[in-house]
Amino acid sequence: MAKRKETELEKLAMQFAQYLQKEKQEGKSLPLSMIIQQIINAIMKHERQIYLNQDVDNYANGYYDRTLGLTFGKLNLKIPRVRYGNKFYPSLLPEKWKRVDKEYENLLLALLSNGYSKAKIKQTLKKLGLPYCEEDMEDILDLVYQHLQAYKNSILPEEIFAVFIDAYHAKMRDENEKLTNISIYLAVAIDMEGYKQILGYWIKKGKENKSFWIEVFQDMISRGLKKVSIFVSDDFSGLTDVVNQFFPYSDHRLCWTHMKRNLRRKFSKREYSLLNKHLTFVKESLTKDEALGHWENFLKELSNLNPSLSKQYEKKSENY
User: Which partner for 90 in 23, 44, 132, 231 could form a disulfide, CB atoms 3.0-4.6 Å apart?
Assistant: First the structure.
């Protein structure tokens, strides 16, 4: 029975990995949209309470669903309603039917990237147009800060079946209003019962490296994580070494889609077609030995075009 459960979990994990990669190909990030969605829903619920504090004869009246399409993904929002009248509408949301612009998206992302600083979160909330008094703004600020800190400080399960590490790249304005490149790295898990859970997020200016991943893994371990069966990620710089260092018995699978995208970027259409032919044979193989044979053919073809890159992929063959 245990063996069957592991097989089902592995199948679920791979399906989820494929879904995450499909989202990423479209420029989206499911874990990121999940975090933003939870924060917006919490703020809107508090906005309704502020409204009801002023309209004491009115009452909460449930929610209605609305989707908000953003560059990084679709948000499934629960819009709070009041029982009497139609004057209440959350200030955090864009006006009805108004197209969401990039500046609005950047402000939502700034809530995450400024998660360590209450002052910066407060500044972002004001830029989002929340028209409340100082006391109410402080309440909303505390609410957002508590949500963000929960992702940073929550106790993690000791054992997790699969951890998916995703990245979303964006341009944000710094304290001098200059645009700077940032990356939001997110870890989402499938636990031993098959449930999904966001483990945390980490902000990095510039490119990731081994020391950055050491900090990320030390953070997860300090919060209770001890054992992971499978890590799934893009080929982030330094990550494979750190997985081997902290979780030497875990399987680390690199993203197939990310590899193919890199090859497409590096080679001509004709050259990529030759390489992709071998990769297609690998994916369609019925046995491990057959797949390994096609992988060797891929490496040979790649070696004719770029020997150093072929050696890099050869070193990480087990991860693919």
Answer: 44
